[in-house]
Amino acid sequence: MTTTPYQRHYDLDWLRTLAFGLLILYHIGMYYVADWGWHIKSDVTSEALQNLMILTNQWRMSLLFFISAMALALAQQRSSRLSLFRLRSNRLLIPLLCAMFIVVVPQVYFEALSQQLIEPGYLSFWWQYINPNTELLRDHHSPIGLLTWNHLWFLPYLWCYSALMLLFAGPLNRLATANWLQAMPGRYAFLLIVGSMMLAWLTLRMHFPSTHALLDDWYNHGKYMLVFIAGYLFAQQGNWWLQVIRYRRYFLLAALLCYSLIIADRNGVFGSLPDNEITFMLRLVFSAVLSLNHWCWILALVGYAGRYLNRPTNKLDKNGSLLHYSNNAILPWYMLHQTLIIVFAVWLKPLALPVGIEAIALIVLTCLGCWAGYELIKRFWLSRWLFGLKVKLPAVSSERASPATH
Questions:
Q1: What is the pLDDT of residues 138-157, one digit of tens each?
Q2: Closest Cα partner for 340 from 374, 361, 367?
């Protein structure tokens, strides 16, 4: 596996698609999981669901940042930094503004309605929502009023990290091609990124709880920026990539072991101590398990994708493929999915269906809604622009537009 200017890594496309698909299931799980706050909640919740969701919530967003950084590094082989900056700005910032003013509004509306903070009336609420000087829900204001990006916080973070990476691409590319780094054994690079993640956890996590508000989210920046830099450098190290593919089974076994330890600890298998009795050594061990869990899952998935998914497959028809479809549809689906989950959950709740049937219906309705939304969005130039799709359609097929996150 070499990273030549003409090679497309289908494994990254598949990984991105699968990661966003997992995100849809995770957010549906947030509606049913007990004790974890979300915009609205089902009347029937499950504590056991926490254990299943912890399987992915340690690394699922990091995987997306890692893949995006790899794609950015590889894209530089065929595009200038300025053109990449323009591309990522158009396909991240425009959709972000569209989402903040249009797409996520129902999330805020139904959340406030469920807490009896507002009276019914969507249009009147929307007018107050877009007014930065509104007096409505003063306790929930940010510096820009009620405007929020909710689940789309990934877009501004990704834009900022991409802009910084392109700004410092010169020294980073020299580092990536340095003889000493090229010659570094993969195990040493692995220990370095695990140690760096441990340092971020030990120094930042307690002082900067996760906010997804960009300006004060220093623990998340420490974690995700580290992941982004690692992905950028990793994409340019063919020998590391080959080693990850070769040792993918060991990464998976280590990931499963770390996950088991985390679940055992959460369920009291090792007992519990008050915060003031937790020693630095215990925190060091815990940070090591969390960091290993984080990186082993990411590298296991990259390894298995590189082994089995680095090829275009699954033809839908003579005009396209599932991979071509998902590369174009992924950003509109991401933008729409959480709003659709909330709208359909509100609609299903009065029906009082058995929870298993309701959850299946919610998954099906969300996917159908995303599909129908994308089918409508891709047909008009304005909606294509607002949702991050290529506006000038190729002559052969609109499904061949460039991937939204490349």
A1: 988 888 899 999 999 999 99
A2: 367
